[in-house]
């Protein structure tokens, strides 16, 4: 998958690798952002509850975009593609 304008790519099915074990509705995958290693949290909205989508997800996305600290990952952008939410983060 490629985004436009941000030089963002993440693994397709042929070389798809999760960085961590998948949860019940999300996984974290390897990505590249401007040629550097990054991570993408992929949330499958079809597997989430209405309560999560309407109450908790908006709060989580707002909060992680606002966090700025040198010892935390940095959220670059958040994309919605079909029924999935992709959170692009730089690694340390």
What can you see in these coordinates?
- With 92 residues, the protein is α+β, with helices and mostly antiparallel strands.
- The protein has one domain: Phosphorylase Kinase, domain 1, CATH 3.30.200.20.
- Strands 1-2-3-5-4 form a 5-stranded antiparallel sheet, with helices on one face.
- The two termini are 23 Å apart.
TL;DR?
By secondary structure, this protein is of the alpha+beta class. It contains one helix and five strands.
* Mean pLDDT across residues: 77
Whole-number tally of structural domains? 1
How much of the sequence lies in strands comes to 35-45%
Shape summary:
globular
Return the CATH topology: Phosphorylase Kinase, domain 1
Number of helices: 1
Spans of at least 5 consecutive residues whose pLDDT stays below 50 are 1-5, 12-16
Largest sheet: 5 strands, antiparallel
- The CATH superfamily is identified as Phosphorylase Kinase, domain 1
Question: Compute the gyration radius: what is it?
Answer: 13 Å
């Amino acid at each position: 998958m490629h985004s436009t304008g941000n030089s963002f790519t993440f693994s397709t099915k042929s070389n798809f690798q999760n960085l961590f074990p998948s949860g019940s509705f999300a996984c974290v995958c390897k990505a590249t952002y401007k040629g550097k290693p990054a991570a993408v949290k992929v949330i499958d909205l079809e597997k989430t509850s209405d309560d999560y989508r309407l109450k908790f997800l908006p709060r989580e996305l707002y909060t992680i975009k606002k966090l700025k600290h040198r010892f935390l990952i940095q959220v670059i952008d958040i994309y919605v593609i079909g029924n999935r939410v992709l959170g692009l983060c730089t690694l340390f």
